[in-house]
Amino acid sequence: MALQGGQVTLTGLDAGIYVVTPNGAFELIHAYDEGDYHLSDIVDYFELGEVLEEDGAPGLELDAREIKQLGRMAKEYASDHPPEFIAMCRNMVKAALDFAAEEDVICFYENFI
User: At what angle do helices 83-99 and 64-76 cross, to 10 degrees?
Assistant: First the structure.
């Protein structure tokens, strides 16, 4: 796992969603459980976040307002989406609360290999 020349590489790590911690490390926050969902589905389903256009692992950036809205939408629309997708959203909200201040932007990366 590394950031090499603007490219996020998560090879050799467990499949899942990783958050970039305040010290720049990548921490697994959601283990991939073989469902049909991706990090980019948050943009598609809820119109939240900004897809990170870097090479390497797919990424998504959410600000504090979007994190709060993601939590509300995951609860409100839980029956409309696969349970593993909703679990991913909830784990992302929890990680954001654990790692970020109100003004921070949180970056998440997907490693579903």
Answer: 150
Measured distance CA(19)–CA(96) in Å, rounded: 8
d(CA 64, CA 85) in angstroms, rounded, equals 20
Q: How far is CA 22 from CA 12, 42, 67, 88, in A?
A: 22, 22, 16, 20
Collapsed DSSP state (helix, strand, coil) of residue 101: coil
pLDDT, tens only, 92-109: 999 998 876 655 799 999
Model confidence pLDDT, tens digit, residues 1-44: 444 445 677 778 889 999 988 888 889 999 998 889 999 999 99
Which amino acid makes up residue 108? Answer: F
To which H or E segment does residue 17 belong?
A: strand 16-20
Do residues 55 and 71 make contact, with C-beta atoms less than 8 angstroms apart?
no
H-type alpha helices, the chain = 41-46, 64-76, 83-99
